Amino acid sequence: MTDPVDAVFDLDALLTDEERGWRDRAREFARTRLAPVVEADFDAGYFRGELVPELGAAGFLGMHLSGYGCAGAGPVAYGLACHELEYVDSGWRTLVSVQGSLAMTAIAKYGSEAQREAWLPRMATGEAIGCFALTEPAGGSDPAAMTTRARFDGGEWVLDGAKRWIGLASEASVAVVWARTDAAGEEALGDADGAAAGGRVRGFVVPTDAAGFAATPIAGKRSMRTSIQCDVALDGVRLPADAVLPGARGLSAPFTCLGEARYGITWGAMGAARACLDAAVARSRSREVFGRPIGAMQLTQAKLADMLVEYEKGMLLALHLGRAKERGALTPEQVSVGKLNAVREAIGIASQARTILGGDGVTDEFPVMRHLANLESVRTYEGTDEIHQLVLGRALTGSPAF
Predict the structure, then answer these.
(1) Domains in the chain with CATH codes
(2) How many other CB atoms are there within 10 angstroms of residue 144's CB atom?
(3) Where would I find the Acyl-CoA dehydrogenase/oxidase N-terminal domain in this sequence (predicted)?
(4) How many Å apart are CA 264 and CA 86, to the nearest integer?
(5) Average pLDDT score, the chain
(6) Can 113 be counted among the known catalytic residues?
(7) Which of 19, 84, 345, 382 is the catalytic position?
(8) What's the confidence (pLDDT) of residue 1?
(9) In whole angstroms, what is the distance from residue 124 CA to residue 113 CA?
(10) What is the tens place of the pLDDT at every residue in 189-244?
């Protein structure tokens, strides 16, 4: 049977053969390896880490990067993979984002050749998991207020501080940790401006087996239960002088990595929306009341039509951003439009789908409540709605309101 959504919205006509190939590969993996276990894993709060090497073997880890065993796929192909993974569950797209868009991108863009050689090939295969430790317990949306410190002592870096909501940290072999340096460290790095300022934000490649590094999974989550987020403590973690990412100077480096992740969310959140839309369409055809399918009712058709329109708009925006990214023309403000719109519309679509499913929509017979719960986390991380609104407000008015 022709898919009713695809029959109305012919996205395939806008994609290349290579992009469709990546999409189909991701769809096959997500629906054969992830979907059969996702409800049980969500209920149990279980991260199925044994599947990470399979993601690596399929080429999805760091797939937008080139060299070091990475696939070198284009931005739209990467977005489509995010879409298909999040169709099943946001936790799995989050893993690909944390591993590839955050940790691997930081090392690839800002690391030394030795750091790239040491970590990227292993991360591309899934042999090594990485995490990206930026957010702090009291910092949230204000990384400039970072309290984690890196002091230079006896030719070594010493890191002290705390991070929170760090994805995969307890499973990771390597953490990219962001900390504020001291003047001595900046002087050792030969950065006179950084030394004069008393230090600046820098990234550090931290093996998670280093003494003083501890990651504790956050308990009690009602969202993102197929993935892991942690509190991270850094208590006198000693690192060699070359542990610093040499190309990362200031907050622009982690913000660039966050932009990569936000781009993936623009596609991924629409995957969750599509799953909810598909469930609602199927239920509207199979459930009968008053002697006919509920899909024959005017109000149900109006809901489905509105959901389809918002889904199509979200996908066209994602594709537009992907083509801009191909040209090297994608701006942070455009990424904020994508992330803000995608998550907001996905939550709206999921909520509307729940009404069509009726009481059964709150059960695990359908994926909608799980997607709704996950999307509330996606809404918050990589920039809250309010942060993206302020980014866009600044672009429109020229006045920062942060």
Answers:
(1) 4-129 (1.10.540.10), 131-249 (2.40.110.10), 253-397 (1.20.140.10)
(2) 11
(3) 16-127
(4) 10
(5) 96
(6) no
(7) 382
(8) 56
(9) 16
(10) 999 999 999 999 999 999 999 999 999 999 999 999 999 999 999 999 999 999 99
